[in-house]
Design a protein that fits this description.
The complex is a heterotrimer of chains A (356), B (294) and C (395).
Chain A (H helix, E strand, L loop, with lengths): L5 H27 L5 H26 L7 H19 L6 H27 L4 H20 L2 E5 L2 E5 L13 E5 L4 E2 L7 H20 L1 H11 L1 H6 L4 H24 L4 E2 L3 H4 L1 H13 L5 H17 L7 H17 L1 H10 L1 H12 L1
Antiparallel strand pairs in A: 1-2, 1-3, 4-5
Helix pairs in contact in A: 1-6, 2-6, 2-9, 2-11, 2-12, 3-4, 3-5, 3-9, 4-9, 6-7, 7-9, 11-12
Chain B lengths: L1 H31 L6 H17 L5 H24 L7 H23 L4 E2 L9 E3 L4 E3 L1 H23 L1 H11 L1 H6 L4 H26 L2 E2 L5 H14 L4 H21 L5 H15 L14
Antiparallel strand pairs in B: 1-4, 2-3
Chain C lengths: L1 H40 L2 E8 L6 H20 L7 E8 L4 H14 L3 E4 L3 H14 L2 E4 L13 E3 L4 H14 L5 E7 L3 H16 L3 E8 L8 H9 L4 E4 L3 H14 L4 E4 L21 E3 L9 H14 L5 H20 L7 H12 L4 E3 L2 E6 L5 E2 L4 E5 L2 E4 L1
Helix pairs in contact in C: 2-10, 3-4, 5-6, 10-11
C-alpha cells in the first residue's frame, strides 16, 4: 500500500466521487421517470446522513486509529444547535436557503467545538479506555439535551434544566427546546441534492485531509506513536485536529437529520450509544480506513432493514443474521483466503494472462 | 442519616448486581481481549430460562438456576464457536461488531419466542428482608444474596485462576497468546472455557438481576449490560476485584447522585465520574499499567 | 488488495439492493395509478398501521397491531365498509421517527389509503408531517403529544397529554384525594414528561402541592428506591405515576418492599398493569387510574373484544389495543358517513373523511358517544377506575 503514488491516489478518489455523482444522476433520472418508490425517495436523505456519519467516523477510527463510541453525540449537538437556530429564525424574514446555510455552519461549528473540548481529555487515553470515555461523553450529551429547556418571549431567552414551567415565560412566550419532547416543527430544508452536495463536500475534506501532510502525520501516529513522536510530530495537535474535523462533519450530518424530520428528540435509539455503534458497524464492515467502503457499507446497511420489511416479524432477526454473516465473510481469515482465490480481479487477471 | 443509610444500601444492592455482570465482562475481556456486547443479552436469556423453569415447568428455584446456567453455558460456547472463533486473528473491532450482531440476534429471537409483553419475575430468593431501626432502613433478602453471591463468585474465580492449571492457562493466554501456545497450552480450549464460565456467570447474574428488579422483557439485559461494562472499566477491565469494586461504586454513585443532585441527571453524573477517574487513573482503579514497547 | 475484494462484494450487494429497489418500483407506479384503477382491480380499501413491533416499545405496537387485525376481521366478516373489504398492512417503526417515515413510505408504495397510526408520539409527529403533505387521513390510537394532530388531516382516539395531565389534577382536586402529591415520571419520554408538565400547571389551581417531583430516564429505570424514598420522606399522601405500566409494576413492588403505601394515581399508561404475566395483583390494590378502557368491564362490546383477543393472541388487551380497535371502527364510521369508495384517491378520501369526522358520533370500547373537534381532539368522558381485588371498578 505504501508504494501508491499520488496519481493513483487521485484516481482512487476520483472513482469515489464518481460513484456518488453517478448514484445521484441515476436516482435523479429514475425519479424524473417516476420509477422510484416512495420508500426509496424517503430514504435518500437518510442515506446521505449515514454516509456522512460513516465517512467522518472513519477518519477517527480508520485514519486516526482511535475507537470512538460517541460519534452520535456530535451528531446530536449539530442537530440540536442547528434546529434551535432554525426555529428562532423560522418566523423572521430570512430566506430559507440562507437560513439553512447558516444552520449548517452553526451545526458544524458547535459539533467541532464539542469535538475539541472532548478531544482534549479523551485523546490522552488509549484503546478501550478511550472508547469507553467517548461512549460516556455521548451519553452525557444525550442526557443533558433531554433535560434542556429553552424558551423565548419578549424579554429574550430563558433557560432551565428542570422543566418548561420553570422557564417562567411571559405572554406569548414559546418553548423552543422542550426537554425530552425535543424540538418540534423544524423546517424541512434538506433534500437529496443538498444531501449529496454535503456528502461530496465531506468526501473532499476527508480525502484531501488524508493525502495532505497533516493526514500523513496522523497516519504515522496511528501506525507507530513513539516513532512519530521521535521524528518531531506534535501528537496532541494532529490527533485533536483529526478528531475535531470528524466531529464537525458529524455535526453536518446532524443538521441534515434535524431538517429532514419534523420532530427532533434525543432518544437512545437515534442519538444514544446504539447509533454510535451502528455507525461503527458501517466503518468496520466497509473496511477500517477505507472511505469509500464506509460510505457503501452505510448505504447497504441503511437499505437492508427497509428491504427486509416483507419478512414482517422476522425482519430484525434476519437483519442480525445477515450482519453476522457479512462480518464473518468480510473479516475471517479463512473467508479472505477463499475470496482471494476466487475474486473477480484474480479471475480477470488470470484471464488476461491467458490472453497474453 | 437514616435516609442516607438506606440510599447507601440500595446503592450497594444495585451495585452488586452490576458487579456480578461486570465479572463476566471482565473475564472475557481479560482473555479474549474483546468487548462482548452480547453479554447483557445472555443475561436476559438466563432470566427467561429461569422464569420458564419456575413458572411453566414448576421446578424448584435451585434446579431452575442450574438449568439456566446449563443453557447459558451451552449458548455461550456456541456463540463463541460460530461467531467469534473465525475472527480470532482478525481486528478486535471486527469481533466487537459481530458481538453486536449476536446481541441483536438474541434480542429478536427472544422477542419472537417470548413476545414483547413484560413478564413479572417471581423472586427465586425467599429470605425475609431485614429491618434496621424500625423499618427506616430495609435490607432485602435479594440484596443480601446478591452481595454474598458476588463475593463468593469473586473468591472462587480468584482461587480458580491462581490455584488450578486451567486458571493458570487462562492467565497465560491473557498475557501472551503466542507464547502460551508455544508452551503447549490449548489456546482455543482455554478461550472456550472462558466463554463458558462467563456465560454461566451471566445466567446467575440474570437470576439475581430479575429477582431484585422483577420485570423481564427481551431488552432487560442490554441496559444493565452496558452499565456493567462501564463498571468493569471503572474498576480496571480485566481485573476481577476491580469489577467488584467498580460495580459497587457505580451503584452507589448512581443512587447518591439521584438522591442528592438530580434524578434527571444521574446518568450524566455517573459518566462524568467515570471520565474523571479514567483521566486520573487511565486504566481504571485496579487496572494494570500498560507498558509500551517500541 | 483485500479491500478491493471486499469492495467487490459490497458492490455486488449494492447492485442487488438496487435491483431490489427496481423491482419495488413498479409497485409504486401502480400505487399512483391505483387511485385511478383500483375500481376494476379488486376494489378493497387499503388501510395501513404503523407502530413499534421490535425494540423497547414493542409491547405497545404489538397490542395495536393485534387489535387492528381483530377489528378488520370483524368488519370484513360483517360485509366491510360501504360493501368493500379492507386490506390491512402493518409496518414496524422501532419507535423511531425516521423509521416511522420509512414505514409510511413503504405503506404508500403498497397503496395505503388511510393510516391508523402511529402508536407512539415522536414518530407520530414526523409521520403527520408526511400525511399532511399527501392529505392522507390519519388517526392515531395513542399518540398523545399535542403536535401529533396539529394538521387538520390527523385525529386521535386517546386523550392528549395536556388533557390527561390537567384532568388528573382536576380529579384529585375535586375529589379531595390529597393535598400533598409526589410525582415520579420518565423525563426522557414525551408522553410522561408531557403529562407531568400539564399536571404541575393545573395542580397549582387545584390547591395541590407537589412535594416531590422525581424522574428517571430510559437508560436508568431499574432502581426506583431513591425516588420512592424521597417521596416517602416528604410525607406525600398520593403518588402520581404518569408513566407506562412496565415501570409502574416495578415501582409498586419496590414501594411495597419499603413499606410506603400512599394512594397511587396513574393515567392511561398504567392500564395493562394487571395483565403483566405473574404480576402480584395485591400490589396494585387501590391503585386509581384515569383510563378510558378497562379490560374487565362488563359491557358486551368489551367482553367480546377481550374474548377474541384472548383466543387469538392468548393475551389480555390493554388500552392501546382498545384504542386501536376503536380507531378502526372510527375509520369505518367516517368512511360510511363520507360515502368513500376504494376508487377515490387518497386526497379525495382524506378531504371527505376530514369533513365526516366533524359530524360522526362513535360508541367504542374507550368511550360512548365520542365526537371530534376540527383540531383532531376527541370528546369523551375520562373514566376513573380503581383496582379492587385484582379487577377494575369504576369510581
Amino acid at each position: 500500500m505504501k508504494k501508491l503514488n499520488l496519481s493513483k491516489n487521485a484516481k482512487h478518489d476520483l472513482v469515489t466521487y464518481g460513484i456518488v455523482v453517478v448514484a445521484y444522476l441515476v436516482m435523479e433520472i429514475l425519479m424524473k421517470a417516476g420509477l422510484v418508490s416512495s420508500l426509496l425517495k424517503g430514504l435518500l436523505v437518510p442515506l446521505c446522513i449515514y454516509a456522512i456519519m460513516a465517512v467522518s467516523l472513519n477518519l477517527t477510527v480508520g485514519i486516526l486509529g482511535e475507537l470512538s463510541l460517541g460519534h452520535a453525540g456530535f451528531m446530536c449537538v449539530g442537530a440540536f444547535a442547528s434546529a434551535f437556530f432554525s426555529m428562532c429564525m423560522k418566523e423572521s424574514a430570512m430566506p430559507g436557503g440562507l437560513r439553512f446555510l447558516l444552520a449548517l455552519i452553526i451545526g458544524a461549528l458547535a459539533a467541532g467545538i464539542f469535538g475539541i473540548l472532548i478531544g482534549i481529555p479523551v485523546l490522552r487515553l488509549r484503546g478501550d479506555y478511550l472508547a469507553i470515555v467517548t461512549l460516556a461523553f455521548g451519553e452525557i450529551i444525550k442526557n443533558l439535551v433531554n433535560v434542556l429547556y429553552i424558551g423565548r418571549d419578549v424579554d429574550g431567552f430563558h433557560f432551565s434544566m428542570k422543566d418548561s414551567l420553570s422557564l417562567n415565560l411571559g405572554e406569548g412566550g414559546k418553548v423552543i427546546v422542550n426537554g425530552a419532547q425535543g424540538i418540534t416543527g423544524t423546517p424541512n430544508d434538506s433534500n437529496f441534492t443538498i444531501g449529496i452536495i454535503l456528502l461530496l463536500i465531506t468526501l473532499v475534506i476527508i480525502l484531501n485531509f488524508i493525502h495532505s501532510r497533516t493526514g500523513r502525520a496522523v497516519m504515522a501516529i496511528r501506525d507507530n506513536r513513539i516513532a512519530a513522536e521521535s521524528v518531531g510530530i506534535n501528537i496532541t495537535k494532529y490527533k485533536l485536529m483529526a478528531f475535531a474535523i470528524s466531529a464537525a462533519l458529524a455535526g453536518i450530518a446532524g443538521v441534515l437529520y434535524a431538517h429532514n424530520l419534523a420532530t427532533l428528540t434525543a432518544l437512545p435509539k437515534n442519538f444514544g450509544y446504539n447509533m454510535s455503534i451502528m455507525i461503527l458497524v458501517y466503518v468496520v464492515l466497509g473496511g477500517i480506513g477505507s472511505t469509500r467502503g464506509s460510505m457503501i457499507a452505510a448505504v447497504i446497511l441503511t437499505l437492508l432493514p427497509e428491504l427486509l420489511r416483507g419478512l414482517n416479524d422476522y425482519r430484525m432477526l434476519i437483519y442480525s443474521i445477515v450482519l453476522i454473516a457479512m462480518m464473518l465473510f468480510n473479516w475471517s481469515p479463512k473467508a479472505r483466503e477463499f475470496r482471494e482465490k476466487y475474486s473477480w480481479k484474480r479471475i480477470m487477471k488470470n484471464g488476461k494472462k491467458e490472453e497474453v | 442519616m437514616s435516609s442516607f443509610l438506606s440510599y447507601l444500601i440500595t446503592g450497594i444492592s444495585l451495585g452488586s448486581v452490576y458487579a456480578i455482570i461486570a465479572l463476566g465482562y471482565t473475564m472475557v475481556y481479560g482473555i479474549a481481549k474483546m468487548l462482548n456486547f452480547a453479554h447483557g443479552d445472555v443475561i436476559m436469556v438466563g432470566s427467561y430460562i429461569a422464569f420458564l423453569a419456575v413458572g411453566a415447568m414448576g421446578l424448584p428455584p435451585i434446579l431452575a438456576v442450574i438449568l439456566a446456567v446449563v443453557v447459558c453455558t451451552t449458548l455461550g460456547i456456541t456463540i463463541e464457536k460460530i461467531a467469534y472463533k473465525p475472527l480470532r486473528t482478525a481486528s478486535p473491532l471486527a469481533v466487537l461488531i459481530t458481538a453486536i450482531g449476536v446481541s441483536y440476534f438474541l434480542q429478536n429471537m427472544a422477542l419472537l419466542i417470548f413476545g414483547a409483553n413484560t413478564k413479572m419475575f417471581t423472586s427465586l430468593i425467599s429470605i425475609d428482608a431485614i429491618n434496621i431501626g424500625d423499618g427506616t432502613v430495609v435490607v432485602t433478602g435479594e440484596t443480601l444474596v446478591t452481595i454474598l453471591a458476588c463475593i463468593f463468585i469473586m473468591v472462587c474465580l480468584t482461587l480458580f485462576i491462581n490455584k488450578t492449571k486451567a486458571g493458570q492457562a487462562m492467565l497465560a493466554v491473557s498475557e501472551d497468546k503466542g507464547a502460551a501456545e508455544l508452551m503447549g497450552i490449548n489456546v482455543n480450549g482455554t478461550i472456550s472455557l472462558t466463554f463458558a464460565i462467563g456465560s454461566a456467570l451471566a445466567a446467575i447474574a440474570g437470576v439475581l438481576l430479575c429477582s431484585a428488579y422483577p420485570t423481564l422483557t427481551p431488552y432487560t439485559g442490554s441496559m444493565p449490560g452496558i452499565k456493567a461494562f462501564v463498571a468493569a472499566v471503572f474498576g480496571g477491565i480485566g481485573s476481577i476485584p476491580g469489577a467488584f469494586i467498580g460495580g459497587i461504586l457505580l451503584g452507589v454513585i448512581e443512587n447518591m447522585s439521584k438522591a442528592y443532585i438530580s434524578s434527571q441527571l444521574s446518568d450524566a453524573i455517573v459518566f462524568s465520574v467515570l471520565i474523571i477517574v479514567l483521566l486520573v487513573k487511565p486504566t481504571g482503579i485496579l487496572g494494570k499499567k500498560i507498558h509500551e514497547k517500541v | 488488495m483485500k479491500k478491493a475484494v471486499s469492495m467487490m462484494l459490497a458492490l455486488a450487494l449494492v447492485v442487488g439492493t438496487l435491483a431490489g429497489c427496481g423491482s419495488s418500483a413498479p409497485a409504486e407506479s401502480s400505487s399512483e395509478a391505483a387511485t385511478e384503477s383500483t375500481a376494476e382491480a379488486g376494489a378493497t380499501f387499503k388501510i395501513g398501521g404503523i407502530g413499534p413491533i421490535t425494540g423497547g416499545a414493542a409491547v405497545y405496537g404489538t397490542a395495536v397491531k393485534n387489535a387492528q387485525e381483530i377489528a378488520v376481521e370483524e368488519i370484513n366478516a360483517a360485509g366491510g365498509i360501504n360493501g368493500y373489504q379492507i386490506e390491512l398492512k402493518f409496518e414496524d417503526d422501532e419507535h423511531d421517527a425516521e423509521k416511522a417515515v420509512n414505514a409510511y413510505n413503504t405503506l404508500k408504495d403498497w397503496g395505503m389509503q388511510v393510516l391508523m397510526g402511529t402508536v407512539t408520539s415522536a414518530p407520530c409527529v414526523a409521520v403527520a408531517e408526511k400525511t399532511h403533505e399527501d392529505n392522507m387521513f390519519q388517526i392515531t390510537p395513542s399518540g398523545t403529544s399535542v403536535p401529533c394532530v396539529q394538521y387538520d388531516n390527523a385525529f386521535r382516539v386517546c386523550f392528549s397529554d395536556p388533557n390527561q395531565g390537567s384532568a388528573s389534577a382536576i380529579y384529585m382536586g375535586t375529589n379531595k384525594l390529597a393535598s400533598k402529591v409526589a410525582v415520579i415520571y420518565d423525563s426522557s419520554d414525551v408522553y410522561s414528561s408531557g403529562i407531568y408538565e400539564n399536571f404541575a400547571a393545573e395542580a397549582k389551581n387545584q390547591g395541590i402541592e407537589i412535594v416531590v417531583a422525581e424522574s428517571f430516564t430510559a437508560d436508568n429505570k431499574t432502581d426506583f428506591t431513591i425516588q420512592l424514598q424521597k417521596a416517602k420522606d416528604s410525607g406525600a399522601e398520593l403518588l402520581f405515576l404518569p408513566i407506562y405500566y412496565n415501570e409502574a409494576a416495578l415501582i409498586l413492588k419496590q414501594a411495597d418492599t419499603m413499606g410506603f403505601k400512599p394512594i397511587i394515581f396513574g393515567c392511561d399508561g398504567l392500564d395493562g398493569i394487571l395483565a403483566v404475566e405473574d404480576f402480584d395483583k395485591a400490589l396494585a390494590e387501590d391503585v386509581m387510574l384515569l383510563t378510558p378502557f378497562a379490560a374487565d368491564a362488563e359491557d358486551e362490546a368489551t367482553k367480546s373484544f377481550v374474548g377474541k383477543f384472548n383466543e387469538k393472541y392468548n393475551d389480555t388487551p390493554n388500552q392501546f389495543a382498545a384504542d386501536a380497535y376503536d380507531a378502526m371502527y372510527i375509520i369505518k364510521a367516517a368512511m360510511e358517513e363520507a360515502n368513500c369508495t376504494p376508487d377515490m384517491s387518497v386526497d379525495e378520501i382524506g378531504t371527505a373523511m376530514i369533513e365526516a369526522m366533524k359530524t360522526i358520533t362513535v360508541d367504542g370500547l374507550t368511550g360512548a358517544g365520542m365526537t371530534w373537534t376540527a383540531d383532531g381532539e376527541v370528546n369523551k368522558a375520562p373514566k376513573a377506575v380503581i383496582i379492587k381485588d385484582g379487577v377494575y371498578k369504576a369510581m
